[in-house]
Amino acid sequence: MEIGSRRGADIHVAIQKVGKVYASPRGPVPALVDVDLDIHAGEFVSIVGPSGCGKSTLLKLVAGLEEASSGRILIEGHSLGGPPDNLGVVFQRDVLLDWRTILDNVLLSVEFRGKPTDRDRERASALLARFGLGAFERRFPWELSGGMRQRASICRALLTDPRLLLMDEPFGALDAMTRDDLNIELARIWQETRKTLLFITHSIAEAVFLSDRVVMMGRSPGMVVDTITIDLPRPRSLVVRESADFAHYVARIRHHFAELGIVKE
């Protein structure tokens, strides 16, 4: 049974009537309105929607990096009051520090808690090797391609083995082949660890390939307009994108956006 379809499963993230309003010289600017969304423990949920609809804002709220203007967010049943424990975040940009080696950039996620141990270093090296960066751990970010830098960023987020992983369009700036490669690796890692994963993307096909559920958001101010459960067998390979079922899900989501006037058919 798909994780996303389970009834009564533990809710890891509860987003309840959440709104976000920003101040501006011209007056209040609403970014989100009455967003309701439950994400079950171990579920992979993607959010798709047009630019400026509040996808990244919602992720920042769940990460505790910003405060909601209304409503509330619960993480494992507790009200959010800042970044929660057991959290990993991957942003659109890799945010690596150019004066630190790739290994030291990955270890940065544990340095906030104290001096990295030998075990931390071994785990960081193992993660880098898994993502094809084993030979580059002593290199600096400016010596690596954009795709390699983003791989290192993912390793940094995974190093502490977080229960909740938030990813904000992490592959948006990558070439198609690198993006496919990282989609496969992310799917494998999720399959092995079953972390709760909230993934922001502009790509409908990417969302369908990776997710248990795809959440659709409308134009700004952002709100949830539909949620679709993806009933495709796991583990998934890129071959699934050639199936009729995959095409059906992509077409269904695109058609819904077309009805809202967001995309053209």
Quick gist of this model?
This protein is α/β, with parallel strands linked by helices.
Task: Quickly list its features.
single chain, alpha/beta, 2 domains, six-stranded mixed β-sheet, 10 strands, transport, nucleotide-binding, ATP hydrolysis activity, ABC_transporter-like_CS
Task: Summarize the helices and strands and which ones pair or pack.
Blueprint: E1 11-22, E2 29-40, E3 44-48, H1 55-62, E4 70-75, E5 78-79, E6 87-90, H2 102-111, H3 118-130, H4 146-158, E7 164-168, H5 176-193, E8 196-200, H6 204-210, E9 213-217, E10 224-229, H7 244-259
Parallel strand pairs: 3-8, 3-9, 6-7, 7-8
Antiparallel strand pairs: 1-2, 1-4, 4-5, 9-10
> What is the helix fraction of residues, given as a range?
25-40%
Number of domains as seen in the coordinates: 2
Mean pLDDT: 91
Intertermini distance:
33 Å
Beta-sheet strand percentage? 15-25%
CATH architecture classification of the largest domain = 3-Layer(aba) Sandwich
Backbone shape: globular
CATH third-level topology of the largest domain: Rossmann fold
Annotation, overall tally of beta strands: 10
Determine the CATH superfamily of the largest domain.
Answer: P-loop containing nucleotide triphosphate hydrolases
Classification by helices and strands: alpha/beta
